Amino acid sequence: MIYQRLLYSRSLSRDYRWMIIPPKISQEGLKVLNQLYNLYDKYKHVFEKSSVSPLYCLNHADATFLVSCGLSNYKDKDGRDIYCLQGISVTQEYRRHFWFILPWILLTNYEGEGLLNIWKNIDFSGADDIVRRASEDYAFRLDRLDKPLAKLIQTPGSSEKLHVNEPAYIPFDRNGLKELSHLLLSYNDCTDFAFGATPEIIKKFNFKIIAKAGPRSKRKNSTGTVTADITPFSVSNDGQIKSIDEHFNDPTDRFDPRKKKVGMINKVKLTSTKNRLLGENVSFRIVSQFFPRLLSVFKIDKILKRPKSSGRQ
Amino acid sequence: MKVTMVGISGSGKTTYMSSLYETLGDAGQNDAGFYLAPRSVQQFDKAILSIGDFSRFSLVNKFKWPDGTQQTTVWPFTVYYNSKPVTYFDWIDYRGGILTEITDAIDTNDTSEATKSEISDLASHIELSNAVILVADAFVLTYYSNIKEARHRSGARRIHEIFTTYSRVYPNRNLIFVIMLTKADTVDPKWKSDNYAPLIERGMEVFNQMVSLCKQNPTWEGGIVPVSAVGEGNAKRTIIPTGDVIHPFKSEDVIVGFPSPLNAEHVLFYCLGQTLKQMKAEAHKSIKQREKELSEVLKKAGLVNKIWSLITRKPDAESVARSILEEKNKDYEVLSQFEPHIEPLLNKALERVRRIA
Q1: Is A155 in CB contact (< 8 Å) with chain B?
Q2: A231–B112: do the CB atoms touch at under 8 Å?
Q3: In this predicted complex, what is the ipTM?
């Protein structure tokens, strides 16, 4: 199976960006991953106490992505922790192969020096220069599959019936990871899963298998209480800024010189009646209001508007 | 109203959010009587959640600095005075890296559409902002003796490029800005004498172009102030020189004492006070204009106007006058809500913010 690498992170003095991307990935594909990362970033404190790192599988038109989000082992020039989204991308061509070996990848390559750790292959001192570097093709070595899968996924009480339309919920811990591998075998294809999800992640994506992060992550819950979006909002990567005016009406806006220019056009429309009363030429008003009526009385307007061709027929 | 922070990555924009939380995050935290709360029209439980979102920036929970902003975030806030709302504002915390990417976008063909779109958003936010906070690391300003190097390393040069363009494109537009010198506690003691006067002078020198633009534009209001998120002696800074010309040093700050922010509220009070002052002027203009309109409309009122309005099926002068009066009353109502707070906000701000111009 051939795969490519993905890395979204920052380096010593260069801000967060796509550092490594698959060569044929579309902007749309990256946008989906950015959305996922932004949601992780917003609630990353939820994952701090977990013994496992979040992991996501997303099927996109371009490819299937298997990515993890979390801390790298580096700090920036100001001593701040560097976070990342890293993982692999597999094209449609290899999707079936990928589905077949995904349980092994999860259980043997998911943490530490595994397949998904892209940072380990990068020299940090020169990482400032890495911007949207196209990934090479890598081959997954099947000889890595040295342990039988059945042994790897053995976990007590993991044989739960799958609901076809409802997502399956698993715990966000090591047992959950085994259960995830087990569940993946029940599907006939790569399925979208979120191993470590906040309510907002669940709401935004259509995951079929979900491990909820947070204090109640160990308890299975199929009802899934979704917390509504709270106050701050982010400027999304597609550049759409949600205006606060959609949510709130600020009374002081009426005196905001910045908003006056925008409101001017509407103001002109709204106050047309007022303007007429205030200063418009009276004779012009009489002509403009009565002339069309006069024409209509004598049906002259219809005669004028009638197309020439209609008279010939 | 909108307030945008502009500064390079690591300059202290997000940490300033922490200082705001520590200083103005709840009613009992400051003697000025003002406090901030995330704006919410939702039910009580959701409003509590939004407070939790703001309190995540607290420095005293873990004695740890907040992570940098990886995604530009807009925070809607309400300013309260003794539990009554004074004004609303959107606080825009920019991803610092975007400032350096503005010039990188020109340098490389490689810049993504997302980055270009983000740059364009930054420009729009600055255009629409009533006040802008220019954030620069005070330590960087004082670490490099060469003034040009200090300008470059602190991000002042990029900021100058943006606002010189702004001034050229909008020659008559007003602008309120504050140069916020962050991490003031980490500078050498020689910069701290006389209430940070030498540091402020250094800041004016580094931001010379902003000072000059402010002096040239009579509608610009500028200020400068040193700020610290933790206060004197509450953070320990370790500097590791790298010997590398691109990144001459690495730094690590550890919070060692209970954070007590320095001058954090003054920056925001200056922005809000100056903006409300401008709005007050606009309000008076608006009221005057409505009074003029009202008297002119009323001159036309009468029986003839009523008959005329019936024929033309348009509102008569009296109903137009009524709607003007309603608007005028609304103007007065809104004005009375914020006007009394302008002076206290500015008085408090100007205790620490030095005015430019």
Answers
A1: no
A2: no
A3: 0.70
